[in-house]
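Supplementary notes for students who missed Thursday's class. We covered one full example, reproduced here. Read the sequence, then the structure, then the short commentary at the end.
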Amino acid sequence: MAEENQGLMAGVEAEVKEEEIQDEGMATANPSDVVEGEDIEGVEYERPDNFPKKFWDDKEGPDIEKMVDSYNSLEKKLSEGRPKAPEEYDLTPLENIDPEDPLVVEYTAWAKENGISQESFISLAMKLVDVGYQSEQEAKLNTDNERKLLGENANEIIQSNINWGKGLVSKGIFTEQDYSELEVLGGTAGGQRLMQKLRQMQGEKEIPVVAIAGNQLDKEELFARVADPRYQTDPAFRRQTEKMFEENVPN
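Structure (token representation):
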């Protein structure tokens, strides 16, 4: 069978396509022909608003090398200036400090973790001690004031209420937790007086009672004083009780 005649154009078209391909290849730049560092003429650089001026060149654009050098220098300075914690802190300057105290242990661990120097460690610790001392003095002052409100028999009243509370614990009526709450209640003169009232409700007779400044005794407290053995044996106590009746019981 005779081959089909493709015509004269067939070969020409194929030749033209091949030439187009060659032309396209010639138009593509060869990377090896590009000269590194060669300036591109006519290109203008515009610095972004948030880009530091000191790392920008109007002709060259961003100066990456200068930026890296600056960063490394800053990192070195920060590293050198960072405080270093000692292996063990010297607590000698802190008088009467127990190294095993949980607060001291926590503070020491925090200081090591944050690289606190020995000097800064002692400086901050001294301030904390001063704050604690002031709080302790304020608490002591408040306690003294509450004690004064109970009058001259304050110690007797407090000890009597302590014995009462401990007695309830020993009898199994109160738990140790209950007694802890009772101690909180007894931290003020008003709380001590309330415990006395509770004892009177239980039918106790010999309960030391003293008027609290700014408050009036109720009838139960007054009659508790009459039932106190001192009312019979102590003339001063009896006169004081009678005076309280006159001042607190309306005519």
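Commentary. The radius of gyration is 47 Å. The CA atoms of residues 48 and 214 lie 76 Å apart. If anything here is unclear, bring it to office hours.
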